[in-house]
TrEMBL record:
Family: Belongs to the short-chain dehydrogenases/reductases (SDR) family.
Superkingdom assignment: Bacteria
SUPFAM superfamilies: NAD(P)-binding Rossmann-fold domains (SSF51735)
Pfam families cross-referenced by the UniProt entry: adh_short (PF00106)
Name of the protein in question: SDR family oxidoreductase
Originating species: Lacticaseibacillus pabuli
Gene3D superfamilies documented for this protein: NAD(P)-binding Rossmann-like Domain
Length: 349
């Protein structure tokens, strides 16, 4: 292995996307840190490939995650890509899945990636480059029955990817949320069923089986090798998408769900409007903005943004800053604005 090669750390590499990713990244010239909890489950060919380093890792163990990342950086001098792939499904109706099982799933599917990201971010910030790949799922949008906690964990991953991107994109760090539909992997085999199934949920199990049958028979499963090849191609792409959908079945189903959701929102917009405040009851910052002096609205908005930042940081705004705001308010509204500021800002202090 060469220290000049890009280094990628992949979690959950004993099966499915993770195992295929190890092969394809190694073939593409990466130094691959292939991790899993049980090294006995590693593909035997991993040990014969000079581009692959095997490492034991429990992503739910924060100290283990931090120590491994430090070891990788000490050995190679850099870590260019983190591929959070590890995850599994606790199957069953909400009421059937035990608390400890649900918590284990969230620990693996959500807090595991959190541990890994916390470990690599200081390195990537110092390098001024890096790419974080998070495996979510179309279940994050579809919210499939009998997959409550899996869907919730993947929705959390997608949300985290979105917000993380907004925080680190200016630091040279990319984030991509990988969103697969159905693929021919060990996902179903590795899913854990509840110890006891309640008869009342039999119709739900029937509908779930019908959905899965449609996926297998009508829509068809995605091609694992092609999906991973796409992920590999996008890894060093400076314009890689934030949301990378793999598998048309998932794309079609998620798009249909999102269109239905937009329709539901649009259908109740008049109800939503009834929850907005009356013009004279809006928050103080909006009220000030609405009462800007002629030609001063843009300048006032910029000043208010700065004041809001100070208020969020310190819980107060200096009198000099408030005076600057008052000078940009329309004369006939200044007395009212001043009273609102005193009540709101100083009241909060």
């Amino acid at each position: 292995m060469s220290k000049e090669q890009p280094v990628i750390l992949i979690t959950g590499t004993s099966t499915g996307f993770g195992r295929e990713a190890v092969h394809q990244y190694a073939a593409a010239g990466y130094t691959v840190i292939a991790t899993m909890r049980n090294l006995a489950k590693a593909d035997p060919s991993f040990k014969d490939n000079p581009n692959i380093d095997l490492a034991k890792l429990d992503i739910t163990d924060k100290e283990n995650a931090t120590a491994l990342v430090a070891k990788v950086v000490a050995k190679y001098g850099h870590l260019d890509v983190l591929y959070n792939n590890a995850g599994y499904n606790e199957s069953g109706a909400f009421e059937e899945v035990a608390d400890d099982a649900a918590r284990r799933e969230m620990e693996t599917n959500f807090w595991g990636p959190v541990n890994m990201i916390r470990a690599v971010l200081p390195i990537m910030r110092q390098q001024h480059h890096g790419h974080i790949l998070n495996t979510s799922s179309m279940a994050a949008y579809l919210n499939l029955p009998l997959m409550t906690f899996y869907s919730a964990s993947k929705a959390a991953v997608t949300s985290m990817s979105d917000t993380l991107h907004k925080e680190v994109s200016g630091l040279g760090i990319q984030v991509t949320d990988i969103e697969p539909g159905g693929f021919n992997t060990n996902f179903g085999v590795n899913s854990k069923l509840p110890a006891h199934q309640l008869p009342d949920y039999a119709p739900v199990y029937q509908r779930s089986a019908e959905f899965n049958a449609r996926v297998f028979i009508e829509a068809g499963l995605g091609d694992l090798k092609k999906a991973v090849a796409l992920i590999v191609r996008e890894t060093l792409n400076p314009d890689a998408p934030l949301h990378l959908v793999v598998g048309m079945q998932g794309y079609d189903d998620a798009r249909a769900y999102l269109e239905q959701l937009i329709g539901e929102y649009d259908g109740q917009v008049e109800l939503t409007k009834t929850t907005d405040p009356e013009p004279d009851e809006v928050n103080v910052f909006k009220y000030i903005y609405q009462h800007a002096a002629a030609g001063k609205q843009a300048q006032l908005k910029e000043l208010l943004v700065q004041d809001i930042m100070k208020f969020q940081t310190n819980g107060k705004i200096a009198d000099a800053d408030l005076l600057a705001v008052m000078q940009l308010v329309a004369p006939d509204a200044q007395q009212d604005v001043q009273q609102r500021l005193v009540t709101t800002i100083h009241g909060a202090n």
